[in-house]
Amino acid sequence: MPLKQGYSRKSISANIRTEQRAGYGRKQAVAIALNVARKAARKAIRSGTHSRAAKRAARFYKG
Fold first, then answer.
1. Between 61 and 30, residue with greater pLDDT
2. Domain residue limits, the chain
3. Residue 21's closest CA among 38, 3, 35?
4. What is the dihedral of CA 49, 54, 59, 62, to 10 degrees?
5. 19-60 pLDDT per residue, tens
């Protein structure tokens, strides 16, 4: 199942659950979900459809 493209807590949690059910370990599932969230936040900033939350998310989810 594809991962949700978003940077909200709800989409991150759903992505973590999806990855754990796919057989990944907890730490790796979190890393994958945060990477997807970071990319989604950066995409929102680039396209100009962002809010303050996207800027915060892009900084927060940075490795």
1. 30
2. 9-60
3. 3
4. -90
5. 999 999 999 999 999 999 988 888 887 887 766 777 777 676
63 token code pair: 């490795």
Give the per-residue SS3 of 1-63: CCCCCCCCHHHHHHHHHHHHHCCCCHHHHHHHHHHHHHHHHHHHHHHCCCCHHHHHHHHHCCC
Amino acid letter for position 13 = S
Q: Of 42, 51, 46, whose CA–CA distance to 5 is shortest?
A: 42
- Polymer length in residues for the chain: 63
